[in-house]
Design a protein that fits this description.
By secondary structure, the chain is α/β, with parallel strands linked by helices. It has helices at residues 15-21, 36-43, 107-113, 127-130, 145-150, 248-261, 281-293, 320-323, and strands at residues 5-9, 63-68, 71-76, 83-89, 94-97, 118-121, 139-142, 190-192, 197-199, 204-209, 218-222, 227-231, 239-241, 267-270, 277-278, 306-311, 314-319. The structure holds zinc ion. Residues 126, 128-129, 232, 271-272 line the site of zinc ion.
Length: 341
C-alpha cells in the first residue's frame, strides 16, 4: 500500500458523516461516538467561510455570504451536513441552486435577498439539497427516472439518522420538529439537459450534467464570472461516493470534465462546508481518484460499511459494492442516506 493512502472502516475523523451512512456496529445501532462534528461546531464558521463577509440577511440558522457580485451562498452550518445552497442573481431572474435541508423554510431567506423571480435547480436530489423545493413553483430538473422517484419526497424513516442530537451543534433549530420531519414532495416545472444555457439577464449559466455522486448530479458554469458550482461532485470535505446510486465510472468522467474547465475558473462553489474555495482543487481530486481506481488499493470491506480512502490530501468515502461497479436498486430514488442492503 502506498504510504499516502490509508484505508479503514469507520474512520474516526468521519464520525459525524457516518451517522448518516448508517455505519453499523455489531448490534446494528448507528455508529456514533464522541464526534468530530462537535469539534467542527467549535471552529465555525471554518477557515474558508471566515474569509467571507457574513451578510446581514443571515439569521440563527442560515448563514449567508456574498461570495461574488450577485451570488449568495446560504449555509446551514449547525447540522453536520453543513449544506450550502447558492442563490445566483441576474438582472431579470435568479436561480437557486439547491434548497437546503428543509428543517426551516429557505424561501424567506431568498426573499430577503432578492425580489426577482426565482427558479430552483438542484445539484442533485439527495434529501439535504431538495428540502425547500416544495416552497417554489418554478423548479428545473434533470429528466431522469432517479430524479422523478425522488420528487415524491423522503419519509421520516429515510432521514431520521441525520436528526439525532449528535447531528446538530446546539440541537435542532427552533420551529423544526425532528421527531416527525420528512422531505415534502415537489414537482418539476420544466426539464433541462446537459449543455443548456440559462439566461438570467446579464448572466448566463451553463448546465453540466455530471453523474457519479448520483445519476442526476449537475454543475453550473458561470464562465464570464469565473464561477463553477460543483454540487457534491466536489466540495471542501470528504467526498461521498458511498450510496447505492453512486457510480465510479461516471464520477471519473465527470470529475475530469470539470477539471478541464478549471483553468478558466476563479472559484469553486460546492454544496457542503465551504461556500467558496479557490480553483485548483479539481485536478488534485481527479489525480487522487485515478489512484483510487487503479486497483492497487483494496480495503477489507464489511458488507455495506463505508471505506475511506485518503489519497494525496483528498478523502473519498465509498463502499465495496460501489468499487465493484454494482448499482443498487434506485427505483425508489435515493435520499443520500439509504445504505446498501
Ligand atoms: Zn450533499
Amino acid at each position: 500500500m502506498d504510504e499516502s493512502v490509508q484505508i479503514s472502516n469507520c474512520h474516526p475523523a468521519l464520525l459525524a458523516l457516518l451517522i448518516i451512512a448508517g455505519c453499523q456496529t455489531q448490534t446494528g445501532t448507528p455508529y456514533v461516538t464522541e464526534g468530530t462534528f462537535a469539534e467542527i461546531c467549535e471552529s465555525l464558521p471554518g477557515e474558508e467561510n471566515a474569509k467571507l463577509r457574513l451578510s446581514d440577511v443571515s439569521d440563527d440558522w442560515f448563514q449567508v455570504y456574498e461570495v461574488s457580485e450577485g451570488v449568495y451562498s446560504i449555509v446551514e452550518p449547525y447540522q453536520f451536513q453543513e449544506t450550502i445552497s447558492h442563490l445566483i442573481l441576474g438582472e431579470q431572474r435568479a436561480v437557486l441552486f439547491d434548497t437546503g435541508l428543509g428543517l426551516l423554510p429557505i424561501r424567506p431567506v431568498v426573499e430577503r435577498i432578492t425580489s426577482l423571480p426565482v427558479s430552483v435547480l438542484n445539484s442533485h436530489t439527495h434529501y439535504d439539497h431538495v428540502g425547500g423545493n416544495a416552497e417554489f413553483s418554478s423548479v428545473l430538473a434533470i429528466d431522469s427516472e432517479y430524479t422523478k422517484a425522488n420528487m415524491s419526497g423522503f419519509e421520516h424513516s429515510r432521514v431520521e439518522y441525520d436528526l439525532t442530537p449528535e447531528a446538530f451543534c446546539n440541537g435542532p433549530p427552533e420551529g423544526a420538529d425532528v421527531s416527525t420531519f420528512y422531505t415534502k414532495p415537489w414537482k418539476a416545472s420544466r426539464y433541462i439537459e446537459d449543455g443548456e444555457i440559462l439566461n438570467l439577464g446579464g448572466r448566463t449559466l451553463e448546465v453540466l450534467h455530471v453523474p457519479g455522486h448520483t445519476p442526476d448530479a449537475t454543475a453550473l458554469l458561470d464562465a464570464e464570472n469565473g464561477l463553477l458550482f460543483t454540487g457534491d461532485t466536489f466540495y471542501d470535505a470528504e467526498l461521498w461516493l458511498f450510496v447505492p446510486e453512486s457510480n465510479l465510472d461516471d464520477y471519473g468522467r465527470s470529475i475530469s470534465r470539470l477539471a478541464n474547465l478549471e483553468s478558466n475558473v476563479k472559484y469553486l462553489l460546492g454544496a457542503h462546508r465551504s461556500a467558496r474555495v479557490d480553483a485548483g482543487r479539481l485536478r488534485q481530486v481527479e489525480a487522487a481518484f485515478q489512484k483510487l481506481r487503479s486497483g492497487r488499493f483494496t480495503g477489507d470491506a464489511g458488507s455495506g460499511d463505508p471505506l475511506i480512502f485518503r489519497i494525496d490530501g483528498v478523502e473519498f468515502v465509498t463502499a465495496q459494492p460501489v468499487l465493484d461497479g454494482k448499482q443498487g436498486d434506485i427505483s425508489n430514488g435515493g435520499s443520500g442516506l439509504d445504505t446498501w442492503p
